[in-house]
Write a structure and sequence with these properties.
Shape: globular
Oligomer: single chain
CATH class: Alpha Beta
Number of strands: 17
Strand content: 35-45%
CATH architecture: 4-Layer Sandwich
CATH topology: Double-stranded beta-helix
Helix content: 10-25%
Structural class: alpha+beta
Length: 255
């Protein structure tokens, strides 16, 4: 199924949102709960599956939903359709501070692999499925989960990430990153988890015990502030509670 051709604009700085313009009859699919606002002519319904295969039966939809459940995502996706007579708009906001990136799947070869929680919304016709990492190291030590999401199609999809998003192009190169800082990559990239240096570096270097290693040729998207790091900095640890003002949440608990 060819994806709907939608127009968009991304607004904001630290906490962004994307506004999608839909012609009559066009639809965009999104994660449940991500809608920011919608105009009068927009109607929405929550469905099992992404709707990329109109002929898919009930069992197929249940299987698609079950696969999404393996990544920890909701079993349902919300479909927003322009049921009016003119152009209408619907907007989606990221769930935490960061950046929204538009991906043209057709220009990217039709497939992109993402860490869980990265997907925000996409034009109807985009298939959302799962991809398993090919190495046991990623399975046991990936930190962010070894079951990844895969977007397949020829339309626009939108992802969100914490902090600043960095797009890097590898040319038969190797890149090592914090496991939580990886947002997505081309299927041509080999992804695994490797030990972070020697034992001293692993336990006292502050960079974690394992790093994600990406090898090959293709695009890689990274995020500067994974949500787990943000939560860790805001959480009122025992030391922060004693100091009183060392943590934002600590200040709130003191009042």
């Amino acid at each position: 199924m060819k994806a709907d051709e939608v127009d968009y604009r991304i607004e904001g700085h630290d906490i962004q949102y994307v506004e999608i313009e839909l012609d009559p009859g066009e639809t965009v699919i999104a994660e449940a709960g991500s809608m920011f606002y919608m105009e009068e002519g927009i109607t929405f319904t929550t469905k099992l599956g992404d709707g990329s295969d109109p002929s898919e039966g009930v069992l197929g939809k249940l299987w698609s939903a079950a696969k999404r459940g393996l990544t920890g995502e909701s079993l349902f996706l919300t479909h927003f359709t322009n049921s009016g007579s003119g152009k209408q708009h619907v907007a989606f906001a990221a769930p935490y501070p960061g950046t929204i990136v538009a991906l043209d799947l057709a220009a990217l070869g039709g497939e992109v692999i993402l860490q869980k929680d990265a997907f925000l919304c996409a034009a109807l016709g985009t298939r959302i499925t799962i991809a398993f990492t090919r190495r046991l190291g990623a399975t046991f030590f990936g930190g962010e989960g070894f079951i990844l999401e895969k977007l397949v199609g020829d339309g626009l999809a939108f992802i969100h990430a914490g902090g600043t998003v960095v797009e890097k192009e590898l040319h038969n190169e190797t890149l090592r990153v914090d496991t939580g800082c990886l947002v997505g990559f081309d299927p041509s990239i080999d992804y695994t988890i490797e030990r972070a240096g020697n034992l001293k570096s692993m336990f006292f270097g502050g960079e974690g015990i394992f790093l994600a290693t990406l090898r090959g040729t293709g695009k890689v998207w990274l995020q500067s502030m994974p949500i787990r790091k943000l939560i860790r900095q805001l959480a009122p640890t025992g030391e922060n509670r004693r100091k009183g003002s060392s943590s934002i949440l600590g200040d709130l608990f003191e009042r």
